Amino acid sequence: GKTTSSQIQRPQHQLTDILTMSSVGFIVADYVCPTIGAIMSTLTFAAPIQSLKSSMKRGSLDTLNPTPWAFMTGNCIGWLAYSYITLDLFVFFANAPGLMISIWLNIGAMKLQYYEEIIKYSSIQITEQAQSGEDTEEDDNGNVTQSASREENSSDSNACHRSPQSLTSHEWKLLNIVIIWMSILSVTSLSPIDKDEMKFVVGVAVNVNLVFFYAAPLSSIMTVLRTKSSASIHKYTMIMNTVNSFFWCVYSLAIQDYYILIPNGLGFGFGITQMLLCTCYPQNDAVGGGGTEQFLDEDGSSRDDSQESQTEII
Question: How do residues 180-201 score in pLDDT, each as one tens digit?
């Protein structure tokens, strides 16, 4: 009936193993996963850089849709504010590089839009000048006058083709998003509310901002189902988003932060859905251009970026 030393040591070893496993799990969930998530977030934000560089060489956005870049700026502003409220360095370092990248992307998109307007306006002016030399007539005294039809065309052209606007459409979108976020942050910082209420307001606002990001994968999913081809899905971005969302889901569960869990859980679900669609509907070369980089325009159609012109914006 005596208790041996080995029997006493066995529960102690089991307790040590449990503590070691829990410590490893804590380190992985609370430090490793968010660190990887921060790196993956930066790589995801950087995914459109090559696309914009190609458009800069062509001198045109073509069907490349820059609208998500404006919401990327709002997304990063919101999460940076959230990181200040919660004192979460992982969230901060996951979005600080993204804010800088989004600023560069938006500047490039605005330059290209204005360049396209200038080219369009210049071509109209050249055409009108060429036509003005043809639509003239000489009277009996040898004076050259402009025909009535030319005067009508000129007045119609001036009414339809005005000089380029000082602000492009993308600038308006970006300014509106920045104004909205500045208003939200001003109200939350100047109002007599506690930290939890500030966390709630900013957390809800940044999740609403993320809804617009989900339009892209949803549009891709509908395009795949319609065309029976996964050519419209950008594989690199899909993989990056899915892996990134997974690590942030693990981290949010570890710290029990549902403002981080909900958007990343949805992002992970969309990523898995796109992976399944890529398996069920392989890329069709006739639609997708044989594996070239795909872009999604505003109506959900796809194009490839396999060719680049020699024109470059500086």
Answer: 999 999 999 898 889 899 999 9
CA 240 to mean position of chain CA atoms: 13
Distances (CA, A) of 244 to 34, 158, 268, 287: 9, 52, 8, 29
Distant-in-sequence, close-in-space partners of 186: CB < 8 Å, separation ≥ 6: none
Provide the 3-class DSSP secondary structure of residue 32.
helix
Nearest to 65 by CA among 114, 101, 106, 97: 106
The confidence band for 271, taking pLDDT boundaries of 50, 70 and 90, is: confident
| List of residues 6+ apart from 110 with CB closer than 8 A | 168, 170, 171, 174
Give the model confidence (pLDDT) of 11-48 as tens digits. 555 555 555 656 777 788 888 888 998 998 998 899 88
| Residues forming a β-bridge with 303 | 295
CB 107, CB 54: distance < 8 Å: no
pLDDT of residue 302: 43
> SS3 for 87?
coil
End-to-end, the C-alpha distance of the chain in Å comes to 89
The CA-atom distances, in angstroms, between 295 and each of 112, 141, 230, 262, 301 are 17, 62, 12, 27, 8
The tokens of 305 are what? 């970026």
> Among 12-26, 206-220, 232-246, which stretch is predicted with the lowest mean pLDDT?
12-26
DSSP 8-state symbol, 31: I
User: For residue 138, what pLDDT is reported?
Assistant: 52
Other C-beta atoms closer than 10 Å to the C-beta of 194 total: 8
**Paired tokens of 163:** 């000089």
Q: For strand 302-304 and strand 136-138, is the pairing parallel, antiparallel, or unpaired?
A: unpaired
CA 4, 10, 14: angle at the middle one, nearest 5? 165
Q: What is the number of other CB atoms lying within 10 angstroms of the CB of residue 42?
A: 18
Other beta carbons within 10 Å of 62? 14
Question: Can you tell me the distance from the alpha carbon of 109 to that of 168, in angstroms, rounded to the nearest whole number?
Answer: 10
Q: How many Cβ atoms sit within 10 Å of the Cβ of residue 233?
A: 23
